[in-house]
């Protein structure tokens, strides 16, 4: 391999149409300087922006103090790119910051396999987060009837003062509840479309506000009023298809490998120890991108 990147790798020419290939055979064999030059060309990054590739600890002491408490310095991670990704009809290079060997290689290899079946197709649901208002009723009241009758009022109350959120198309989508017999606690779930924000502060603020009105409707001792990090209504999904033949090796045929993958999945579905390890493997790919 030489430093003449145009000889071996396509250069991106039309960012709007995303017309470049993420297939970069031999990319791993190049020196870091050559890799940077290629990425600079493909991503249309100017030389000033690409200077940051060479300095992974750009935070200064002032910024450290802004971000965290008791800051004493910074810690760097290697930054690489996963190749071969074809997502929603476009080739992309995926930046990954990680210290663990083989993670970038595994992601690139998986993307190469998925590419044979047309790449990845992704989708996402609206950005709905959930807050919990926990209370302990002190009187025997029909909370189902009370909450059902006042749901519209509670939603309107939550929206009061949230004009900017509403203007962006966000707001409370649903109020639901359940009673937990084991702790004799009523828990009210508030599902909120937070739009572009992660929404933690927004959800907490709305839960605090609603709890005061709910306490007027249902005599109670108030418990927690806070968001949950179980975002089961805020989902991002990716699908791919890999041809059987692409999975064959010297020991097993493609269909045999498929059966073994399915068996490993079923093992994890019925065993928390295996499921935890599978999830750790998934997070190996997610963490570096985040």
SS-based class: alpha+beta
Strands, count: 8
Strand proportion, as a percent range, falls in: 15-25%
User: What is the overall silhouette?
Assistant: globular
Describe this structure in words.
The longest helix has 18 residues, at 200-217. By secondary structure, the chain is α+β, with helices and mostly antiparallel strands. The protein is 39% helix and 22% strand. The strands form three sheets. It has a four-stranded antiparallel beta sheet with strand order 5-6-4-7, with helices on one face. It has helices at residues 5-8, 32-42, 47-50, 61-67, 103-115, 143-159, 163-167, 200-217, 254-270, 272-289; strands spanning 79-87, 90-97, 121-124, 128-137, 171-180, 185-193, 220-228, 236-239. It has three domains: 5-124, 3-hydroxy-3-methylglutaryl-coenzyme A Reductase, Chain A, domain 2 (Alpha-Beta Complex); 128-228, 2-Layer Sandwich (Alpha-Beta Plaits), CATH 3.30.70; 243-289, no CATH class.
Descriptors for this entry?
290 residues; 3-hydroxy-3-methylglutaryl-coenzyme A Reductase, Chain A, domain 2; two-stranded antiparallel sheet; single chain; Alpha-Beta Plaits
